[in-house]
Amino acid sequence: MDTLRGWVYIVRDIGKLKFVLVRIFPENRVVQTVFKEGETEKSSMKLVESLYPETLLELKGEWRSSEKAPGGREFVVKEASMISPSKPLPIDISGKTPVEYANRIKYRWLDVRRPEVSAVLRLKSIILKAARDYLLSEGFVETTYPVIISTASEGGAELFPVVYFDKEAFLAQSGQLYKQALVPSLGKVFSISASFRAEKSRTRKHLTEFWQIDVEAGFVTERDLMDIEFGIYRSVTEELNKYPELFEILGREPPEIPRTYEDITYDEALEILRGDGVDIAWGDDFGAPEERKLCSHFDTPFFIRRFPLEQSPFYAKVVREDPKYSYKMDFMAPGENGMELSSGGLREENPEMLRKRMKELGLKPESFEWYVEMFEYGFPPHGGFGIGIERLTTVMLGLEKVTDATAFPRTPDILYP
Fold first, then answer.
1. Domain boundaries, position 128
2. Whether residue 192 sits in one domain with residue 73
3. How many domains does the chain have?
4. C-alpha angle with apex 136: 26 to 399, nearest 5 degrees?
5. C-alpha torsion 280→338→216→128, nearest 10
6. From the first residue on, what is the mean pLDDT of each consecutive set of 10 residues in the chain (417 residues)?
7. pTM of this structure
8. 139 and 244 share a domain?
9. Could you tell me the CATH number of the domain that includes residue 243?
10. Does 64 share its domain with 159?
11. Is 69 part of a structural domain of the chain?
């Protein structure tokens, strides 16, 4: 006999036949099991009458073809035993009864058992593997960066302070300064790590704790960086297309595999928006409405590059022939529900220019002493980017918002569980 272990999902009792849909371990895939009078032992038939959803069972029996069952077959139970009982559920995770988002979050530890959430998390794992494999194949070295830092990576006040013995410390906004420091040693580096921003943004693309594929490399051009980012994007889509059964659970098709990408300048993006009737001045940043309008003009991933210097972080390299611009670039997902996936560009390696930029942005160069000093020791030209993993997952899987792309989201309103 075959053996299944899984959780009761839905029970349909029609007398001599009892159909129990079970989420089997470890795939969390729903299968149909059948308890038949005359084939299933009497104690097992009796057991079905007292089952709550999420009771964990061990079932022994055999697979049989069935046109009406999910996947074209069902498991006929000979013997059933209870591994772990369940109390009545505080929320319905079968999809039969709608559950408010606040209650889904309150009982997120239970909500993650839903096949749809499980499929998202499995596909997210596939996204991470595809990105990692691509970067390793391109000669990048995987490393790690500190999460507890002594000064802001990105500047500004969007920092979470932490108690660190008798010193002032913060949760890292990104691994920016540290990945740059590793370029002279390792040449091309990446990390998949957490970042923290104390932004009170309540949008479909913001989290206060999010994960990034953080990449940095020496002797790269703008084109090199765009090729690397697109390489990650394309590799991810190719890998996801190998798992149509997981997308079927979500009721969606796998993402289209793009052949190429496009790139426009910030000034060209302004022209597109103004053509759509958007009142936007040179130097303005793109908010969510502007991003959506821009993305709707493209059916393939695209980059926006050469941003105004005033919009750029202090470490962004200044365009020497036209210093009102920097080499900052954003990578955008296309379509009506597209969004910014990453920000990056070429970095400034001139220590005096870095000090000047810090002062212009109201930062204190002495707070970044080690960082600025490292550029006085033969530092190579370099560049990089950070791709938001939850944003990439949201786009690839067609999700509504980034909170759906993580097991336990953190926002200004969500800290539990």
1. 111-405
2. no
3. 2
4. 50
5. 160
6. 97 92 96 96 95 97 92 95 97 95 97 98 98 98 95 76 93 95 98 94 93 98 98 98 97 97 98 97 95 97 98 96 98 95 98 96 92 98 98 97 97 96
7. 0.96
8. yes
9. 3.30.930.10
10. no
11. yes
* Residue 105 placed within a domain: no
What is the number of residues in the chain? 417
**Location of structure tokens 């890998």:** 239
